[in-house]
């Protein structure tokens, strides 16, 4: 396999709310390699966004990163991101590691032209000398993200563009500084189905052309199948299974993954009936003891109630956190 770009180790984030401490993510560990698309998948509230944001310390009060390390490899140097000052991490965020969020509307400022905003993204990281220089470059970037008539579009304000075009602009700003890692958090969820497919195609094109690695956050197994090389399945703030995409779909071993794949139309297999996993996602203020999935798990035994299962490599590259894994 290719080189390691990102190493997330035991990442733990808590939110200190009036109701109690929300243990949003607990000991999350995974690697992202150069040139791959790595997906984080799971139901709502399982900690995908918190994980992706914590990587560059984008956690706001009442949240706090209470443990873990994030190593980022840049030009042969191994940087630990969580120990960096706000200023140092700001220099990495938006330059070496860029984000794309779900709603393009909220990523763009309604008061500035899209050309200005793409230009500004480069200007703040010293990629262009002036905003004016940047606008010339922005035309080329809009062309690369396949926005028609970029010379004219560069002068548009966000409200003059459709949702899909706005997301193209956001992707353009993301890649403007030639990042190594693009973190895309549900980048197509807010868009129409036809536009979704176009944006996913665009992400593939960007990945090819720029040699980017992509950390893709999604709750959609179809998108995982279409986009990802490897995938980590999250449940209630923890990674329960991690492997290449083919293995997850064909040989899932964690009871949660097995249930998840039964509850969604499996894009690689035809299923007649959708099943749902009984029970509800646990409250993260008082998560279940032992394995957080045990109250909903048909295979749960005594040890599952008392001991937290570690992610173990059961076959090459296939990690499962379960005391009673099976197929
Ligand atoms: N500001 C906050 N205050 C308290 N709890 C929070 C806060 N932000 C996130 N959380 C908690 O952290 C957990 C993980 O949230 P996160 O947004 O990462 O989920 P997600 O997997 O991205 O879900 P979705 O698919 O809905 O985006 C949730 O249980 C949520 O309640
Ligand atoms: Ni999210």
TrEMBL record:
Keywords: ATP-binding, Cell membrane, Ion transport, Membrane, Nucleotide-binding, Translocase, Transport
EC primary class: translocase
UniProt keyword Isomerase, yes or no: no
Keyword Transferase: no
Main location: membrane
BP GO annotations: peptide transport
Catalytic activity: Ni(2+)(out) + ATP + H2O = Ni(2+)(in) + ADP + phosphate + H(+)
Membrane topology: Peripheral membrane protein
Cell location: Cell membrane
CDD domains: ABC_NikE_OppD_transporters
Transmembrane feature ranges: none
Assembly mode: The complex is composed of two ATP-binding proteins (NikD and NikE), two transmembrane proteins (NikB and NikC) and a solute-binding protein (NikA).
SMART domains linked: AAA (SM00382)
GO cellular component: plasma membrane
GO terms, molecular function: ABC-type nickel transporter activity; ATP binding; ATP hydrolysis activity
The ABC transporter domain, residue ranges: 8-261
Organism field: Geoglobus ahangari
UniProt protein name: Nickel import system ATP-binding protein NikD
EC number, as in UniProt: 7.2.2.11
